[in-house]
Amino acid sequence: MSERLEVRRTAKLFVGGAFPRSESGRSYEVAAADGTFLANAALASRKDVRDAVTAARKAQPGWAATTAYNRGQILYRVAELLEGRAAQFIDEVASAEGVDLDEAARLVEESVDRWVWYAGWSDKIAMVAGSSNPVAGPYFNFSVPEPTGVVAVLAPQASSLLGLVSVLAPAIVSGNTVVVVASEARPLPAVSLGEVLATSDVPGGVVNILTGHTAELAPVLASHMDVNAIDLCGAPAADVAELERLAAENVKRVVRPGRNGEPDWLAEPTPRRMLALTETKTVWHPQGL
Amino acid sequence: MTSVPDLVTPTWEYAPAPESRAIATLRASYGLFIDGAFADPVDGGVRKTVNPATEEVLAEVADAGPKDVDRAVQAARRAFIEVWGPMPGRERAKYLYRVARLIQERAREFAVLETLDNGKPIRESRDVDVPLAAAHFFHHAGWADKLAHAGYGPDPRPLGVAAQVIPWNFPLLMAAWKLAPALATGNTVVLKPAETTPLSALLLAEVLQQAGLPPGVVNIVTGDGATGAALVAHPDVDKVAFTGSTEVGKAIQRQLAGTRTRLTLELGGKAANVVFDDAPLDQAVEGIVNGIFFNQGHVCCAGSRLLVQESLHDELLDRLKERLGTLRLGDPLDKNTDIGAINSAEQLQRITELAASGEAEGAQRWSPDCALPERGFWFAPTVFTGVAQSHRIAQEEIFGPVLSVLTFRTPQEAVEKANNTPYGLSAGVWTDKGSLILWMAQRLRAGVVWANTFNRFDPTSPFGGYKESGFGREGGRQGLGAYLDVEVDA
């Protein structure tokens, strides 16, 4: 009796809530840490980047207008579904990163908890980063953080899931929408995360996930006039300065990569990444008869 | 001969739309929830809880005696030392998220049970009490692992065992307001629900079991004031949180004098709802109605004093009376009901007595045509005009569907009158002029000021009073301080 042949998953892009292949028809080979063939991932093109930005822009006002409570519940829902598919992610992280299953399990659990951590921030960002300002005059003056808009994220290259979640969740929790370029050599957990996001009440277009050559896609995002901020976490070190120069064209907010490479994603997170992707709005209103 | 139907005059006739009560499974009797399990009282008794809309007995509920209270406090202490205190915030958070989700999942069951036991309209328990209770758990879950960012220093510590005594007006919601911040900050709890409305808290105990909350983290002792007094006086309690009457609040404050037990109080109110002559009138009428007739006026922050600018008085009163004529009083389980039952015979007696004093002191009493059901506890919506500041109905909390109308001419006079009670829980301002809203807000001695709205609640928004309405806040970043070790001079 012959063994059953498994059905492989086609690794696609995740754009505007749908799963297209690259419009270019290109793909690239993804191998496990030990060199085994895993899949052909879609090799996103400039046009895919532009489509993704369009989708992100379209989704942004609606996402930002969602109540913070609702956004929090949606992020929490992502954690619920990720937990339910933990086994799949443990396998993918283990083969992508070359870690044993225990270590992969730890990374996946931490990724679930990271979503939970950020879910809790949604209605607390303004409580922590906003203020009522005692100006010297008869005015009520207050400041609130608002999302900056469409954020491009170059996901970390080493940490395929935990690192990805750690740069993605802080961007969307405040109401930004995102175009993220997955780890080039380890894109499959990102592809699977897109499948989780698609089924977890996150509106289409809030997160758009591209796979491909980071060095090829990064300049397109950095120079795109409808992108408001870029997180350079996973940018090739040699390209960072040029990407920052491109970003200056429309004064993008830039999150620079760490001086010592990728941070320790298992360390206690801070609100900094989240706050770096918000604007402060201050309102003056007279007080008097 | 066929008659021509009158399509012009509104009749407000609605077919009955009762919510099924089948979803709320009532047990014949309920024990105390101590150390993760239901148990019969050791030295307490039993009391019946009734549906105030029908006087039907719903269930028998245990009355905890001093020994039961002691067992509950001991269980809470053990859980604090062994499990909940040492647990990382991120794990506590996940328990609270589970509780929020379970309340959402069982929302309809909670709503029906609450309406049966309390008498409030199903529309309110379904749309306000239960969703807000879930939201409080959800919001505070997120604080459990973010306390370092809450402004209380890098590593604020819990207090220990919290004794929480809650009222009957929002039984589940008050339980959520008390439990969620206490648990998020790492305390364990002994909760005492009100004696007339214990059932939703006991259903919540089931939810806590489903959530897998470690035994002893939350203990629920039912009973009356004697049980509450035993709990508050227990020497191993680190924190007392009380919501209820100012009279009992003062007694608790006196009782804790000289101890190290921390205290927060959320007490009575006599809120002024101030309406200026440029107010958006339709919204103001809705806001006034919502302010005083929401939950039969059993709301500590109810807008029980309407302060209306003199020039607007007659027009506003006409509109208000017309609107009150459309309110439906009756079966709380009917989805069209606006005004449900008064929670208890005792409360009905209190409202009746205070309303009588209004007439005796010379105010004019008015109620819409409104047939009251024969069984149960009911009080028609009532408006008093010509009320003077010295009248009891302008000074004392009625906690019922009774509105006292006063007038003012200038904003200064409005502030003066609004602040002229011993209370300071909430206030409302109605005007189209933003600068006037803020001018008023600055001068009103009240913990919450609603502008062109009323009776809004949110877990991110601190709630609590000035003056004899109590101290401490619930909700918001500020609410966490009530359960953290932030003594001024330790």
Would you mind describing this structure in some detail?
The complex is a heterodimer of chains A (289) and B (490). Chain A has 289 residues and is α/β, with parallel strands linked by helices. Helix content of chain A is 42%, strand content 18%. Chain A contains 10 helices and 10 strands. Chain A has a 5-stranded parallel β-sheet, sandwiched between helices. Chain A starts with 26 loop residues before the first strand and ends with a strand. Chain B contains 15 helices and 18 strands. Chain B has helices at 66-84, 89-105, 107-118, 122-143, 171-184, 199-210, 225-232, 246-255, 281-293, 313-324, 345-360, 392-395, 411-418, 434-443, 476-480, and strands at 29-30, 32-34, 37-39, 45-51, 56-63, 161-165, 188-192, 218-220, 239-243, 262-266, 272-275, 305-309, 364-366, 382-385, 402-408, 426-430, 448-451, 470-471. Chain B has a 7-stranded mixed β-sheet, with helices on both faces. In chain B, β9, α8 and β10 form a beta-alpha-beta unit. The A-B interface holds A 68-69, 72-73, 76, 113, 116-117, 119-124, 127-128, 140, 271, 285-289 and B 90, 93-94, 97, 135, 138-139, 141-146, 149-151, 411, 434-436, 438-439, 442, 459-460, 476-477.
Q: Secondary-structure blueprint of this entry?
A:
The complex is a heterodimer of chains A (about 290) and B (about 500).
Chain A: E1 27-31, E2 37-42, H1 46-65, H2 68-84, H3 86-97, H4 101-121, H5 125-129, E3 131-132, E4 139-147, E5 150-154, H6 162-172, E6 177-181, H7 188-198, E7 207-210, H8 214-223, E8 229-231, H9 240-247, E9 253-255, H10 272-276, E10 278-286
Helix pairs in contact in A: 1-8, 2-4, 3-4, 4-6, 8-9
Chain B: E1 29-30, E2 32-34, E3 37-39, E4 45-51, E5 56-63, H1 66-84, H2 89-105, H3 107-118, H4 122-143, E6 161-165, H5 171-184, E7 188-192, H6 199-210, E8 218-220, H7 225-232, E9 239-243, H8 246-255, E10 262-266, E11 272-275, H9 281-293, E12 305-309, H10 313-324, H11 345-360, E13 364-366, E14 382-385, H12 392-395, E15 402-408, H13 411-418, E16 426-430, H14 434-443, E17 448-451, E18 470-471, H15 476-480
Parallel strand pairs in B: 1-5, 6-7, 6-9, 7-8, 9-10, 11-12, 11-16, 12-15, 14-15, 16-17
Antiparallel strand pairs in B: 2-3, 4-5, 10-18, 13-14
Helix pairs in contact in B: 2-4, 3-4, 4-5, 9-10
